[in-house]
Specification:
The protein contains seven helices and eight strands. The chain has about 190 residues and is α/β, with parallel strands linked by helices. It has one domain: Flavin prenyltransferase-like (Rossmann fold). The strands form two sheets. The protein has a five-stranded parallel sheet with strand order 2-1-3-4-6, with helices on both faces. Strand 1, helix 1 and strand 2 form a beta-alpha-beta unit. Helix 1 runs parallel beside helix 2, helix 1 crosses helix 7 and helix 3 crosses helix 6. The relative contact order is 0.17.
Length: about 190
């Protein structure tokens, strides 16, 4: 007999990510509504998902939804103590807005997500950015400058196809296999 799935529980698909801690840094864009599916899909493969969020993300999705999907509380305030950041196997910025990417490229740590990214880069933890924005913002010089700076620091970028003149949030079925491959290859 299989174990019952509790309200926050997920049906495990694989154990590929068992023992892996993935921090997700969510910034404020409409793509944030897809985070519940991404969090739960990562958990179906055994990952521990630790959500970090800017305050602007809560205009699109609630802290309750994020913490329920992750089965972890949401960190939304920068904390001077970054020791616990060292225990992550991967940091993913998704959705990554132009504002957040620009702040990360300048080393600004004024919110939980930018502090998470700075600590990860400084600590040698792999970081993947998943930009979601309209093409006007993507064409802004700050995007290419920030992208190149972050790439020079080791940050990888996962960009979906342009659809409706936007870099849209990837589906969980597209992003999660990519993240699994990245975390297992490190």
């Amino acid at each position: 007999m299989s174990k019952p799935i509790l309200d926050k529980g997920v049906q495990e698909k694989s154990s590929q990510l068992r023992g892996k801690r993935i921090a997700i840094g969510a910034s404020g864009g409409i793509g944030a509504v897809g985070l519940v599916k991404i969090f739960r899909e990562l958990r179906r493969h055994g990952a521990e998902v630790c959500p970090f969020a800017t305050h602007s993300v809560f205009k699109f999705i609630t802290p309750l939804s994020l913490s329920w999907a992750a089965d972890h509380p949401v960190v939304s305030e920068p904390d001077e103590s970054v020791e616990h950041f060292e225990t992550f196997d991967l940091v993913v910025i998704v959705p990554a807005t132009l504002n957040t990417l620009s702040k990360c490229a300048m080393g600004i740590t004024d919110n939980a997500v930018t502090l998470l990214v700075a600590a990860a880069i400084g600590g040698g933890i792999p970081v993947i950015a998943v930009p979601t924005m309209n093409l006007r913002l993507r064409r802004h010089p700050a995007y290419s400058t920030s992208r190149e700076t972050l790439k020079s620091w080791g940050v990888e970028f996962f960009e979906c196809e342009v659809e409706e003149d936007r870099l849209k949030m990837p589906a969980a079925e597209v992003l999660v296999p990519y993240l699994i491959e990245k975390i297992l290859s490190k």
